[in-house]
User: Which sequence fits this backbone?
């Protein structure tokens, strides 16, 4: 089966200073799977997410190609088939009530109601503006937007920053709902533990390149999954090294 999304030799660079931030990135996102994009802060994860949506800062350029179902990504496909949950919870439109923001993605009122319920949000939240909500509620609303949309791919940029252990586990469960809907998820994170809890594949970025691409074998990642010394060291540093299917 053709991958849903494919990065082909994608480089992101600053033409004026000749500075290459990401160099010839190649990886695929299969249908219905969770791919974690893992790497330290400042490596270029958000830029890679922005490149999918053609949202790179104007002073940066991209070379190479990103294909969707083996075809070039068009504006129409970006609008219909892809949805971005940005890194900042400030990304919700501050001037539009939550209900209206959800309605821009679907006319199906029942679907919105069910989704809010599933995410533990009161229906009354629809009448609120983003500034009236807590950070956690806003992040849930952003996940609700991804769930009510008809997108085939959700890109979640760093959805678990600064959460305590319990809130983080809750959020990972919410991200799994995206997969339950048979959507693919690109989960951008520097949280290795979270990545291997929910991902089917982990793509590791370091020094501008993909240094490792680890595929879950059956239910869990194992000691053999990690070949690169860097990822092996990350794996060995984890408090617990076996996660199995529930
Ligand atoms: N407009 C820009 N012009 C030049 N360099 C930029 C620009 N935007 C980002 N960068 C640089 O590109 C690098 C990657 O930034 P990016 O935000 O993608 O990192 P990240 O991996 O998402 O980090 P974090 O985990 O902290 O969110 C950084 O070193 C940043 O300074
Ligand atoms: Ni980022």
Assistant:
């Amino acid at each position: 089966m053709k991958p849903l999304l494919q990065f082909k030799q994608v480089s992101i660079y600053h033409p004026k200073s000749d500075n290459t931030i990401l160099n010839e990135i190649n990886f695929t996102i299969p249908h219905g799977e969770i791919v974690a994009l893992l790497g330290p802060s400042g490596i270029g994860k958000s830029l890679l997410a922005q490149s999918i949506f053609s949202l790179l800062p104007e002073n940066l350029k991209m070379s190479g190609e990103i294909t969707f179902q083996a075809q070039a990504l068009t504006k129409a496909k970006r609008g219909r088939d892809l949805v971005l949950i940005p890194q900042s919870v400030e990304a919700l439109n501050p001037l539009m009530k939550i209900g209206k923001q959800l309605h821009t993605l679907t006319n199906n009122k029942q679907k919105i109601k069910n989704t809010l319920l599933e995410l533990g949000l009161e229906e009354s939240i629809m009448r609120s503006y983003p500034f009236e909500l807590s950070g956690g509620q806003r992040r849930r609303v952003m996940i609700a937007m991804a769930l009510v949309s008809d997108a085939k791919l959700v890109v979640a940029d760093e959805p678990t920053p600064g959460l305590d252990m319990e809130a983080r586990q809750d959020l990972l469960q919410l991200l799994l709902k995206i997969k339950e809907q048979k959507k693919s998820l690109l989960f951008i994170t520097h949280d290795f533990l979270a990545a291997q809890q929910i991902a089917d594949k982990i793509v590791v970025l370091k020094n501008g390149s993909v240094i490792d691409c680890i595929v879950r074998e059956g239910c869990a990642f194992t000691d053999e999954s990690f070949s690169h010394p860097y990822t092996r060291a990350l794996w060995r540093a984890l408090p617990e090294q076996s996660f199995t299917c529930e």
Observations:
- The first helix runs from residue 45 to 52.
- Helices lie at 45-52, 75-81, 98-103, 109-118, 135-148, 165-180, 192-198, 229-236.
- The pocket of nickel (II) ion (ligand 2) is lined by residues 45-46, 87, 157-158 (CB under 6 Å).
- Residues 219 and 245 are 5 Å apart (CA to CA).
